Structures are given as structure tokens and as C-alpha cells.
Amino acid sequence: MRLFAQLGWYFRREWRRYLGAVALLIIIAILQLIPPKVVGVIVDGVTEHHYTAQQVWMWVGLLVIVAVVTYLLRYVWRVWLFGASYQLAVELREDFYRQLSRQHPEFYLRHRTGDLMARATNDVDRVVFAAGEGVLTLVDSLVMGCVVLVVMSTQISWQLTLLSLLPMPIMALVIKRYGDQLHQRFKLAQAAFSALNDRTQESMTSIRMIKAFGLEDRQSALFASEAADTGAKNMRVARVDARFDPTIYIAIGMANMLAIGGGSWMVVNGSLTLGQLTSFAMYLGLMIWPMLALAWMFNIVERGSAAYSRIRDMLAEMPVVKDGSQSVPEGRGNLTIAIREFRYPQTEQPTLNNVSAVLNPGQMLGICGPTGAGKSTLLSLIQRHFDVTDGDIRFHEVPLPQLKLDAWRSRLAVVNQTPFLFSDSVASNIALGKPGATQEEIEHVARLASVHEDILRLPQGYATEVGERGVMLSGGQKQRISIARALLLNAEILILDDALSAVDGRTEHQILHNLRQWGEGRTVIISAHRLSALTEASEILVMQHGHIAQRGQHEQLSRQPGWYRDMYRYQQLEAALTDAPEEAIDA
Ligand code: ADP
Asked: Which residues form the ABC transporter domain (predicted)?
């Protein structure tokens, strides 16, 4: 029942709709009291022979009118009440999505996609059901139940009413217990559903790899075990679920038994007429629905409450990175990196130590070093996925945490190691950050990224659909399309995080040459494994174990003993070996 308190903000805001629906429900409850009364009157009238056929038809006419009006009112409140609950679904999903888009990579390491999707769909549906159907059944059962009770006790006999209600408190306690059990079990069932969703999502996205490694059987077995676990947990919910109705029926049976027993005794005693007892039994019949509804309401609301707490857990998570309040100063500015120390949340060892650099507009910074040296970490600090623990990164001399996050990110264009393409046309993928871009603009950046010719060779050129995640394209083509996409943003700072790894040496050289021209007055930061990508850089940072082991320009570093010179020589040798046959063919 705590769900109603948790959703109080929504009920207060939408009070008009809810109040209107509740008022109609009350009117319907009152209208429903008319038929038993009328039937009682007819029975007494007919048994005592003082009603004409015409009078009986009049009463029947009244019953028909009541039925029609009830039908219409029921329609209207449904529209009001369920309209409000569907609106709640829209808002919860919007909040949820907004929350997801505010979060940073670290959040997505902790929460898996399948789980998040389960919460955004299945759990929201449960809450919405509780806010619609749950409210309806609560109001309907309470209003209807109370009105029937009042009529039974005032119109017929309060003693008989009291007698027949004796089983109810026990029933209420039992139902409450079931409700608590249902809450716990349903939460576990939803968590199991999330895990199943994760497994499904993972299997679908890695289907190529699964097939390549012949892991179908293993994957199917894993899936089957998740499905069985979810099934078992839902079965536990169903077991509690199944106890509600029989309990109610037992309580109603006992109430009927007490009513008929006590009522017959009163008829014999002369304190009740047969018609009144008939009416009383019918009123008691009217209590069946409110009581079943009350139990059902418990069921729905406990499920909704469990689901809502899963949604709220997500909504309550604060992003690790807080938004700043200052607008980003206009124009091109220096980027000053002065990190004394950075450690990831929940990590003991610092990942970066004493990393500093100053980048003037138009300069190109190269970053290299062995895997795990901290290159991606440095780039993600510049993008403010995390904040520097000790020291800072400044733009225009303003520390990044003081800048508005969206405004800062809009100054950056980032190409990651693993480019992501949407299942849309090539042109739309390039124009992702600038939907209104003209064909000329798109082709211009595609030329800069040396992918224009490749695109023309595709079946429908720029209009070719690339398939899910760009399955139609090679790794190098995807990388270059992502570069074109970033260039179209016309951002001030371009970050290439090993974005040329799948591109051959000559194309890489061409792209870098184009970038130098494009990037006049713009800052470019390139992290690369292949050092040939860094030859043009104004400064290269060689990172090792989280600190800068060497720094300087290519010429200088390739002569200085150290990791850079060794790696450069090794890569040159490798390139000579792999390029030689191609050149022989070309010749
Ligand atoms: P590089 O890009 O040079 O290969 P990274 O910046 O990815 O290196 O990683 C540097 C170090 O930080 C590694 O030891 C890695 O395990 C650690 N690391 C990376 N991401 C996280 C994270 N989210 N939480 C904790 N440690 C991390």
C-alpha cells in the first residue's frame, strides 16, 4: 500500500481527474444499490398481492434505466482514470530516459542493458497498472463495500450485518500477509526477468561471435537456465497469487452462512420479513466483488510497489559528474591539463599521476603508450566522464567542473575506438550531429575522412542502409564514417581515440593530411597505437603506468632511447613487411 504514498506527487498533481473518476465511482456504487432494493420491494409486493402488473413493469423500467446510466458512467471514469495512468507511464519513461542519458560510462558498467530495458518497460507497466486498475479497485471496493454495509445495517438490521461480518477482520489479516509475501517474491521475479533480458540482449548482440566459436549449445543452455530461474520465481509469485481468491470465497461463504442462519432465526422470530432477508442476501452478494477487488488491489499494488522501488533505485542514482553553472567562454581557447592525480571511484591505486600539457588552438596533441597506460582515461577526463581527483583540466582558464556540461561537450567532437553506426543510411549516419546538413556538406566531410570513394561504391551510395550497427561496412569504413560525422560537427576540439586503427597506412596518412588543413585554428587530440598517426603532432605524450614517460615531437622522440623509438622502429619494420607485397602488385 506504500505505493499510493510513493505516487502521492502524481495523484496530487492530477487530482482533478482522479477526483472526477472517484466521484463517478461513488455515484455508480449508489446506483447499484437500487436494484436489490427494487427486487425486495417487488418480492414483498407480489407475495402480499397488492402490486398490479403495470406497477411491476414500472419497477423493471427503473432497473433498466439504472443499468444504462451505470454503463455510461463506467465508460467515462475509465477514460479519466486510465488516461491519467497512461500519462504517468509517459512521464516515468521520460524521467528514466533522461536519467540514463545523464549517466556516465561507469553507470553502464554497473547496470546492464537488459536490466535497464526491463525496468523501463516491464516495471513501468506494473506501476501504471497499479495507478489505474489499483486505484479503481481500491475506490470501487471501499465505496461499494461501505455503502452496502451502511444500507444493510440501516435498512435491514445492524445486528445481522455485524454477525455476517465477523469473518472479515481475520480475512484482512491473512490478505495483508499475502500482500507482503507477494511484494518480496515479485521483486525477485522482476530481478530474474532483468537477468533474462540481459542474457537475451547479450546473445542477440554477440550472435556472430557465438556462431563463430560454435557456442550455440552452451549459450542455449545458459539461456534455458535463466528462463527456468525466471519461471520458478514467477511460479513462487503465482503460488501466493493463488491464495487470495480462495481466502475471500471462504470468508464470503462464512458470512453467508452466518447471515442466512441468523436471518432465518430473525424471520422466525418476526423481526425480519422474508423480502428483507432476500434483500440482505442480495446485498451480501454485492459484497463479493468489493472483497475480491480489495484482494486483487493488494495484489496489483504490491506488484506495482516492488516495480516502483526498482525504478526509483535507478532514478535516485546521482551521476558521478555534477553539472557546472558557467557558460563556456566564446571563441577558441587554450586547453590546460594539470592532473596531479586521478583515481577511478572505488579504486585504490591512482590511474594517472602528474599528467600535464597545454594545448593552444590549432595544435595537435598526440598520446601513445602501451595498453593500460591511461590514454583512454585521460581522454575521458577531458570529456568529463569523470572528474580529476587532484588537479584540474581548464578551458579558457576555467576548470571543467565549473562549465555547463552540455555546452562543454558541444565543443568536442569525439571518435571512439569502436564506432557506433545506427541502422540508417550512410548520409544520416554522417549527419547524426547536424540533421539539417546538406548533401554537399556531407560529401565534403566524407572526402576529408577519405571515405567518399568507398561510399560511392556502395549499392545506393550515400542512401545505402548500413544495417544494424553498420554490419554492411568494414571496420575501416565505419571508422572513417565516424570521423566524417565528427568533422561535420565543426567542433573546436577533435578527439580521435585510436580512431584510425582499422585504416591502412596510406589512407591514414591522407586523412591526417586533410585533418591538418581542416584543423587550422582547431585543437586535435589523437591517441594512437600506430605511431605513424602522430608524426604531425605539435607534442606527443608517451604514457606509461599512468604518467608521462617521454614527451616531445616525433623527430625528437624517434631518436631518443625509450618506448617510442623501439615501438616506432618495430612498427616501421612491420609496415615494410606487410606493404611490400602490395607494392609489388601495384608495380
Ligand atoms: P589505455 O587507454 O592506455 O589502454 P586505460 O586508460 O583504458 O588505458 O586504462 C588505464 C588503467 O585504468 C588500466 O589499468 C585500467 O584497468 C584502469 N581502468 C580503466 N577504466 C576503469 C574503470 N572504469 N574503473 C577502474 N579502473 C579502470
From this structure: 337-570
Q: How many whole angstroms from its chain centre is CA 566? A: 48
Q: What is the pLDDT of residues 39-79, one digit of tens each?
A: 888 888 887 777 788 888 888 898 899 999 999 998 998 88
Residues whose CB is less than 8 angstroms from the CB of residue 556 and which lie 6 or more positions away in sequence, other chains included? none
* Rounded Cα gap, residues 493 and 500, in angstroms: 17
Domain residue limits, the chain: 7-315, 335-586
Q: Round to whole Å and give the CA distance between 297 and 567.
A: 69
Q: Sign of torsion, CA 182 184 189 190?
A: positive
| Cα–Cα nearest to 87, from 30, 28, 131 | 131
* Residue 244 region by backbone torsions, left for phi larger than 0, else alpha for psi between -120 and 50, else beta: alpha
CB of 376 shorter than 6 A to ligand 1: yes
Q: Quick one: pLDDT band at residue 582, thresholds 50, 70, 90?
A: very low
CB atoms within 10 A of CB 216: 12
Q: Which residue matches cell numbers 566522464? A: 385
User: pLDDT tens digits for 130-174?
Assistant: 988 888 888 878 887 888 888 888 888 888 898 988 888 888 889
Top-level class of domain 335-586: alpha beta
Asked whether 353 lines ligand 1 (CB < 6 A), one says no
Global pTM?
A: 0.68
**The ligand 1 atom nearest the CA atom of 374:** 6
pLDDT surpassing 50 at residue 487 = yes
Is any atom of ligand 1 closer than 6 Å to the C-beta of 375?
yes
C-alpha cell at 549: 614517460
431 Cβ contact partners less than 8 Å away, ≥ 6 residues apart: 437, 442, 485, 488
Q: Ligand 1 centre from 371 Cα, in Å?
A: 9
Amino acid at 307: A
Read off the pLDDT of each residue in 288-301 and give the average, rounded to a whole number: 84
| Burial classification of residue 388, based on how many CB atoms lie within 10 Å of its CB (0-12 exposed, 13-18 middle, 19 or more buried) | buried
For ligand 1, atom 20: residue with the closest CA: 377
Q: What separation in angstroms does the CA of 408 have from each of 332, 396, 466, 472, 563?
A: 12, 11, 31, 33, 34
Place of cell 565534403: 444
Per-chain mean pLDDT for the chain: 86
pLDDT of residue 580: 52
Is residue 451 within 8 Å of 480, Cβ to Cβ? yes
Q: What single-letter DSSP state applies at residue 492?
A: S
Cα of 499 vs centre of ligand 1, distance in Å, is 18
**Assigned architecture for domain 7-315:** Up-down Bundle (1.20)
CA distance 451 to 479: 9
